[in-house]
Design a protein that fits this description.
- The complex is a heterodimer of chains A (378) and B (404).
- Chain A has 378 residues and is of the alpha+beta class.
- Helices cover 65% and strands 8% of the residues of chain A.
- Chain A is built from 12 helices and 10 strands.
- Chain B has 404 residues and is mainly alpha-helical.
- Helices cover 73% and strands 0% of the residues of chain B.
- Chain B contains 19 helices and no strands.
- The radius of gyration of chain B is 26 Å and the shape is globular.
- At the A-B interface, helix 1, helix 3, helix 4, helix 9 and helix 11 of A face helix 3, helix 12, helix 13, helix 17 and helix 18 of B.
Chain lengths: 378, 404
């Protein structure tokens, strides 16, 4: 009771201080400033944005940038993390040591230092566009320099598929493929019920879908995609997929950092499967790959999922370090807006709420997945 | 991919013929199957390429930037004529280490030799004469502490006395570094904006670790409280903080904390940044401590109540010691995390290791030397974090985690 009173009095006095401080500055808390035009420029925007767009739209641009880099980062760091984790358990001495050194080094330095090294030490020292590093060097018909990759201090350009006029037709073929996918899946499920034996549903459904996609591609006179090579025109690389230096840098740094942590999680998960399980599987006649896929992996997954969830949450939160290298993520846009509008209280509240909701959504999803893979005890 | 499950059978030695043979070792560890050999050859190619480029680069790298800026990287712009105060702190550290090692030489032989030899090795480097003397002084301090402890076994080898020394050491050192608030010539105040580099990173890390621990303890106990108001309040704070990036809390401390306080209170940037770190890591610490509390069986509480301990004593003497021992590995992990997270204070403009490296990069004399500087500071972070995690293994062993 006394505690509650003390807390209420404390919070009350803090609120009083806050209101009086804001009133002194003539800025009572309100969110109307979100509708005003910000007059700021954001280098990278996946939705239309200019300096006459509203502040709310600027926040949305930052939000989309954060989401895009965290989703891609989670995907690729999982793949690299599994490779690192398996490498640490490899019977090959060299691979094992290499993976160990990687993990120990990355886990013992701050992400910020890694990102800054990547940005200032590697990407900023790349040559300028005139002397850009080019993989698979070639020249276009009108004499521009072109290649598969173009690396320079202005960013990275990669050859990327571009739609042609047959693209919409091809989409319809893919829809037919999806229909066949579901038909095959249902047939196999029915057959499995009748014969009481499981069939490899995933394999066959994907195989039939791929068949349709491939046949459709071959039947079309012009292929639906062509590979567009970037080329150097003036002071910039055009064509293909252009990624800014900041994006590539934050992305690769995050993947490198998170993969070391995920590698350790994967290793711990696999080591938690008792040796007897593997021996039993081998003595039942499963080969090495089948042992891993059917016996080790499902059991390891139970141990892996909960810490993996917090790793994924970490990726989303760590994208906020983009502010140190100038990537316009949610936090960095917020920082700019605070400087522009001076509305620190409201903006920090908004940004904390947004990050909190990402965390909640990721946690909900991973908990749902965890319920699916966990041990069912009768 | 081949997977091994580690199994410890050190007591069974292989036959003599299989023990020492380079070719046999190579065949077993590098060329067991055809894909193993393929990976090995591929790996050797990649590693030799990396090593070659590193060697090629380090021969042209401008290491002079580290040599020129060593002092600023380590202590920032701490006044030169006051540097003896920092050395005094180090010497005290070595004296207390010597005192602690005095009674435990048998089990801690390795650490004793390391601590004696490392300053001697540093003294061989071409620093200025006075710095080399200071390094030798460190070894001397260690030995003095060691012999004092041997001479006054009764007083100085008591755990309580040693604990008191360590407890007093940190506030004492902070007093020496910051200076006495009186207007005196002996220890004039060195304002916190002059601290920098490794010194600032370490101060922030140590204070954050020390303060976030009780914060976490209170939040953890609050979350287990039977009173719903306290429980919900603590849960909301813990989960809310764990869901946001640390940098938002740094900005919260930096921009908004001053608004919450009466206008007469002016806080330095250092304190505001540290408040952010402490709140953030306090929430994480709370979850670690809660995990430890959950590991203690109910019977321990019951036994303790049956012996007549009240709630407070049960917590302090029975439950907490056991649960803290159980979570040492997790705690050390979060301590390393805290050391790493101190690097973020550079974003709010403090000149810690990262901030100093940025400042050096802005100096036109050292243009294009960011690689060298950043490698150097990542080496410092690595040494700090790696030795901390190795030390935790020692502590675990001496406390018998997982054995009792």
């Amino acid at each position: 009771m006394i505690f509650a009173l003390v807390v209420i009095a404390f919070v009350g006095s803090l609120y009083h201080n806050l209101v009086s401080a804001l009133a002194r500055r003539g800025m009572m808390p309100s969110f109307t400033f979100l509708r005003l035009a910000g007059g700021i420029d954001i280098g990278e925007h996946l939705i239309p944005f200019s300096n006459i767009s509203s502040n709310a739209r600027a926040l949305l641009v930052g939000l989309i940038n954060t989401l895009s880099i965290s989703i891609l980062g989670i995907f690729f760091s999982t793949i690299l993390g599994i490779i690192v984790g398996l490498g640490r358990l490899s019977k090959n001495y060299m691979i094992r040591k290499f993976a160990t050194i990687y993990v120990e080094f990355i886990r013992n330095i701050p992400l910020l230092v890694l990102l800054l090294f990547w940005y200032r030490g590697v990407f900023m020292t790349l040559p300028n566009i005139k002397n850009a590093l080019i993989f698979h060097y070639m020249t276009t018909s009108d004499g521009y320099v072109s290649g598969l990759f173009i690396l320079s201090n202005r960013g990275t350009s990669i050859a990327w598929p571009r739609r042609t006029y047959t693209f919409s037709l091809y989409l319809w073929i893919l829809v037919i493929g999806m229909v066949i996918f579901f038909i095959v899946a249902n047939l196999l499920i029915l057959k499995g019920r009748r014969t009481k034996r499981p069939h490899m549903i995933t394999l066959w459904t994907f195989f039939s879908f791929l068949c349709v996609a491939l046949v459709g591609w071959l039947l079309l006179r012009n292929s639906p995609f062509i590979l567009e090579y970037p080329y150097i025109k003036g002071f910039d690389a055009t064509g293909g997929l252009h990624l800014s230096t900041e994006y590539v840098c934050l992305f690769s740094g995050l993947i490198m950092y998170t993969a070391a942590y995920i590698g350790e999680i994967v290793r711990a998960g696999i080591q938690s499967v008792s040796k007897g399980q593997i021996e039993a599987a081998r003595s039942l006649g499963l080969n090495e790959f089948q042992t891993i896929r059917l016996v080790v992996f499902p059991q390891a997954l139970r141990v892996i999922i909960p810490p993996l969830t917090s790793s994924y949450l970490g990726v989303t939160k760590n994208t906020s370090l983009g502010v140190a290298i100038g990537y316009p993520d949610l936090f960095s846009v917020t920082g700019t807006l605070i400087n522009q509008t001076g509305r620190a209280v409201e903006l920090i509240l908004i940004v904390m709420g947004l990050y909190l909701s990402f965390s909640l959504i990721t946690a909900l999803f991973m908990n749902w997945y965890n319920r699916k893979v966990r041990l069912v005890e009768d | 991919m081949v997977i091994t499950i580690e199994k410890k059978d050190n007591d069974i030695l292989p036959p003599l013929s299989e023990r020492i043979s380079l070719i046999r070792w190579l065949r077993k560890n590098l060329f067991k199957t055809w894909y193993d050999s393929l990976m090995t050859i591929f790996g050797v190619g990649i590693i030799s390429f990396i090593l070659k480029s590193i060697i090629k680069w380090s021969s042209v790298a401008r290491w002079d930037v580290i040599v020129d800026n060593l002092q600023i990287l380590l202590v920032g712009s701490y006044p030169k004529d006051q540097l003896w105060r920092l050395w005094l702190c180090l010497i005290l550290l070595f004296v207390i280490s010597g005192l602690s090692l005095g009674g435990r030489l048998k089990t801690k032989k390795k650490i004793f030799y390391e601590l004696t030899l490392i300053p001697v090795v540093f003294a061989l480097f071409p620093f200025s004469f006075i710095v080399r003397m200071y390094f030798l002084g460190l070894t001397l301090a260690l030995l003095i502490g060691f012999f004092l402890s041997r001479c006054f076994v009764r007083i100085l080898q008591r755990n309580a006395v040693l604990f008191l020394f360590w407890l007093l050491y940190i506030p004492f050192v902070l007093l020496i570094i910051a200076g006495l608030p009186l207007n005196n010539a002996f220890l004039p105040i060195v304002p916190s904006h002059l601290w920098g580099g490794l010194l600032l990173s370490l101060i922030i890390a140590i204070i954050s670790i020390l303060v976030s621990f009780p914060v976490g303890l209170f939040l953890a106990l609050g979350r287990r409280s039977k009173l719903p108001v306290i429980r919900i309040f603590s849960t909301i704070i813990i989960e809310g903080i764990r869901g946001v990036p640390m940098i938002t809390l740094l900005f919260l401390g930096y921009l908004i904390l001053p608004l919450f306080l009466p206008s007469s209170v002016g806080l330095s940037v250092l304190v505001r940044a540290m408040a952010g770190i402490i709140i953030f890591h306090g929430a994480y610490m709370a979850e670690n401590i809660r995990a430890g509390l959950q590991a203690i069986p109910k019977t321990q509480y019951e036994a303790s109540y049956a012996l007549g301990f009240n709630k407070f004593l049960t917590m302090a003497l029975v439950i907490l010691p056991q649960s803290l021992r159980a979570i040492i590995p997790i705690l050390v992990n979060s301590f390393t995390g805290m050391i790493k997270d101190t690097s973020l204070v550079s974003i709010v403009g403090l000149l810690d290791l990262v901030g100093i490296s940025t400042a050096i990069g802005a100096n036109p004399d050292y243009f294009g030397t960011q690689r060298e500087v950043l490698l150097f500071i990542s080496g410092l972070y690595f040494i700090l974090c790696y030795s901390l995690s190795k030390a935790s293994l020692q502590v675990e062993k001496s406390l018998g985690v997982g054995e009792r």
